[in-house]
Amino acid sequence: MSGLELEDINVWLNGQKILHDVNISIAKGECVALLGPSGCGKTTTLRTIAGFIHPQAGDVRISGQSCVDLPPNRRNVGLVFQDYALFPHMTVAQNVGYGLRMRKRSDSESEKLVHQFLEMVQLDHVKDRMPQSLSGGQRQRVALARALVIKPDILLLDEPLGALDRKLRDQMQVELKQLQKQLGVTTIIVTHDQEEALSLADRVAVMFGGKIREIGTPQSLYDRPKHRDVMDFLGSSNLFRCTVTHVSEDGVTVSGPGGFQTVLNRTDFQLNQNVLVGIRPEHLSIERAVADSPRASVSGTVHETVYKGSLMEVLIKTTDDHIFRAAVSPRSLTHGQIESGAAISLVLEKDFIQIFQD
Amino acid sequence: MGQFTSTVRITGSRDSFWSRYSGALFLLAPLLVFLIIFYVIPFAHMLRESFQYASSDTQAGEGLTLHQYIKTWSSARIGRVMERTFRMSLLTVAITLVLSYPIALLLLRLKSSIRTIILLVIFISLASSLIVRNYGWVVVLADKGALNALIQALGLMDKPVRLMYSEVAIVIGLVHFSIPFMVLPIYSSLLRQPSSLQEASQSLGGNAWQTFSKITLPLSLPGVFGGTVLTFALSMSAYVTPLMLGSPSSSMISQVAAEQLLIQLNFPYGAAIIVTLTVLTFLIVAAYATLLRKVFRADV
Amino acid sequence: MQTSSAAPATTLFDRIVGFLAWLALIFLLFPVVLTAIVSLNDSFFIEFPPKALSFKWYFNIVNIHAIGRSTLISASIALSAALLCTTLAIAASLAISRYQFSGKAFLTAFLLSPITMPMVAVGIALIQFFIMIGAAFTWYSLLIGHMVLVIAYPIRTLLASLTLMNPSLEEAATSLGASKFKAFWTVTLPQMKPGLISGFLFAFLISFDNYPISVFLVRGGLSTMPIEVFNYISQNLDPTPAAFSTLYVIVISLIIAYAERRYRIVSYSIQ
Question: Are the CB atoms for A286 and A333 separated by under 8 Å?
Fold first, then answer.
């Protein structure tokens, strides 16, 4: 059952094309994050779904019904703004009840619903306070309650955790996810923060330059991205250029800096073709240099180490001046293993090697 | 906005009054001295004069008296003129508000190039000579003027409509004068509202009228208050406009006061009329502010 | 390339607001435009539409009694009043925005109050005062009257300018070695420029155009432009004042347009 569908959405603003043929299909109850750097068009997409932008081409369908020609107040969407947009001249309860008043619900019914949803976000005790007297975290929950009380078909969140401090963010992450699952409301989150996207969403759509680059579950996007810029954007990665040095029926052999060589079960590469190889730092492990190792490895000397509490980043420099970054647990290291200048080898976990066209 | 915590002098309780405030005093002294000599004292003198007998009064004598005020309040003519002035001022405020608010709303929506042009037009209106502007209305409203030409051309009337030298002409002139004073405060208070508030209202189901009446308008009340108060005060004390566009039967209170002062040379009586006007205006404005604060919970 | 707007459709409410707004703007411009048309009318009487066009009324402006001398007086008064008031306002607005003291709101209200006082009251109170001290009907007494009239405008725009200013700029200057005065002169003052210019401009224009205060403070040879124009209007029926009006509006428009172009005064007066 469809929750939201965007079909061939194209948007021009101020003479510039912002969205190019954006297509996405979201199931009812699913939570999808639109992730990308600023300027990628994710906010424009959100506003198009809400109805503040009318696309020059394309269709927006909520619960199967086309609503692209409806103004925002006739679409049943709940929007939580980045600055929360709480009405400063109304109490918390009046803010939350605003959408119900617009839908002409009776006062007694509204009061019950407002109470119910304020309880859900644990803020029933401040219902008669003014928004200015609340903390940032409280304001966000009021904004959430206000958007949810109207039982929207779609919930749209614009950078929901951006303004919160670390501790509050972690807490809200859990609460938000639980609330979303409990209510089963189709949710779209717009964010530039990958941690937000990866932790909250069932699927993540990575956007660059007004197009959706790749959609997938957080895991698949992180572990096995199909596009190099997606890999580059999410988390840190080692990306290095290699050449196809041998082609046979079993596969192709690629060779690269630091003595890297591996055989891949791919048939779509030619001899001497350049490819881009990517692997994440946590999928590189440290071994003492062993010549002619059959596993994919790179060797060089320790260039720099960065202690990050739960992990240690080790940068090695190969003889051909390439830097590889590994992330290892500090406890797994032996004394002197990562002294500056020490000879060292990094083994690449084959399962997590990604290959991209160059 | 504009928290001057770093350049405001943080002073301790041990600093003497002088060292704490000498800078401010030094800066403010010239202006304060000037205003005290040429603003406070003349008005204080005028105030005192309003409590004296005029040389033309039959009960002439030394000492303070309420005679002038009793005369003011018991004069039928003054009562009529006051009522007329008050009525015309209210009308002016209402019409100006209805015309100015849409301009402010329009300014929000326009591209910046057109917006600047309209703002410039408003500024030029503000800075144009009042004599010049009222003369423009003489031209428009005269028997052979533009408006009558239009009315006759459209076949609405056969004879010219007498518009000049009437209350109608004065109100038109006052509204024309007051529009800039109303548009600018409303516009700046609208600018201060984040657009996300209107969008939030729309996303919750509010149509254009509901969003305006429940969100935009209440939050713009400080600006509306500023504009209406200024317009009201300026209209109540209007002198040039009724002088140029009105007739004796439509005179406003400033004219009556000026008449007493310049022609009758009855300074105490004229002073009493002016003081009455000023105090009355102030009281009305104070009541208005209280109403907005208590009933509409506005931040004025 | 598509050029249609991406905004949602305009509603009935939007349309009504737009209609009223444009109506109001036409209302604002109406007399100015019509006066300009009338000023070009060949005929002696004010009539519309004009039957023949001529510039003769523009040449007749010189026949307004003492127009040259009174305009000069108006200009000198306005210039002096604007300069003096702006200087006083700089000091006062600095004091108000940089220092904390109780009664600041009251002080600010007091300094801004002359705008709302009936002008007739100001004129009459002052002429009595000047008669009392024996300085009535002089250029200086006229200047003082105008200063009381316009002082509020530069104070308002300068206060607005100062509250918008970033306080760390002056600190940066002093940390780089500038004395307090130098920092003020080279950093703060330039930041206040738009507020200064718009305050000065308003003070000048409002003084230049004032009638009610001037009319009580002048006599005989001392006269101002609005007074002479007003007298001409009361005594003559021809469209010479229309020509004068139009000329006046054109000059003002050019001045304000230039000030906006160069100093962006519009944004600093909207506070």
Answer: yes
The answer to whether residues A24 and A60 touch, using CB atoms and an 8 Å cutoff, is no
Residues of C in contact with A15 (CB under 8 A): 1, 3
In sequence order, the 6+-apart residues with CB closer than 8 A to the CB of A72 are A50, A51, A52, B199, B202, B203, C8
Sheet order of strands, A154-158 included: A77-80, A154-158, A186-191, A31-35, A203-208, A211-216
The full set of domain ranges for chain C reads 12-54, 65-239
Question: If one looks up domain A2-233 in CATH, what number appears?
Answer: 3.40.50.300
Cα separation, B271 vs B72, in Å, equals 10
Cβ of C8 within 8 Å of Cβ of A53? The answer is yes
Residues of B within 8 A of C110 (CB-CB) are: 35
The structural architecture, per CATH, of the domain C65-239 is Orthogonal Bundle (1.10)
Show which of residues 5-34 on chain B sit within 8 Å of chain C, judged by CB atoms: 5-9, 21, 23-25, 27-28, 30-31, 34
| Residue B6 reports pLDDT greater than 50 | no
At residue C55 the predicted structure's pLDDT band, cuts being 50, 70 and 90, is: confident
pLDDT band at A2 (very low <50, low <70, confident <90, very high): confident
Measure CB to CB from residue A73 to each of B207, B214, B218 and give the nearest one.
Answer: B207
Q: Cβ contacts (< 8 Å) between C239 and chain B: which residues?
A: 139
Q: A57-62 and A154-158: which strand pairing?
A: unpaired
Predicted-assembly ipTM surpassing the 0.90 threshold: no
User: Cβ contact (<8 Å) for C120 and B254?
Assistant: yes
Whether the CB-CB separation of B254 and C226 falls below 8 Å is answered with no
CATH code at B81-295: 1.10.3720.10
User: Are C4 and A56 a contacting pair at CB < 8 A?
Assistant: yes
The fraction of chain A above a pLDDT of 90, given in percent, is 46
Of A34-43, A172-181, A336-345, B71-80, the poorest mean pLDDT is in A336-345
Q: Measured between CB atoms, does B207 come within 8 Å of chain A?
A: yes
| Bridge partners, residue A298, by sequence | A346
B202 and A85 in contact by Cβ < 8 A? no
What are the residues whose beta carbons fall under 8 Å from the beta carbon of A28, sequence distance 6 or more? A1, A2, A3, A63, A184, A186
Mode of pairing for the β-strands spanning A31-35 and A186-191: parallel
Question: Which residues in chain B have Cβ-Cβ distances shorter than 8 Å to A83?
Answer: 194, 196
Alpha carbon separation from C167 to B2, B26, C179 (Å, rounded): 8, 21, 16
Q: What is A238-357's CATH number?
A: 2.40.50.140
pLDDT tens column, A280-338: 998 888 876 555 556 788 888 888 889 888 888 889 888 888 899 999 888 877 766 77
Q: Could you tell me the residue ranges of all domains in chain A?
A: 2-233, 238-357
Task: Please write the tens of the pLDDT for every residue from B235-254.
Answer: 998 999 999 999 888 999 99
Angle between helical axes of B167-191 and B221-236 (0-180°, round to 10)? 150
The C-alpha atoms of residue C127 and residue B277 are separated, in whole angstroms, by 19
What mean pLDDT comes out for the span B270-277?
90
Residue spans per domain, chain B: 81-295
- Residue A130: pLDDT band (50, 70, 90) is very high
Mean pLDDT score of chain B, rounded to an integer?
Answer: 85
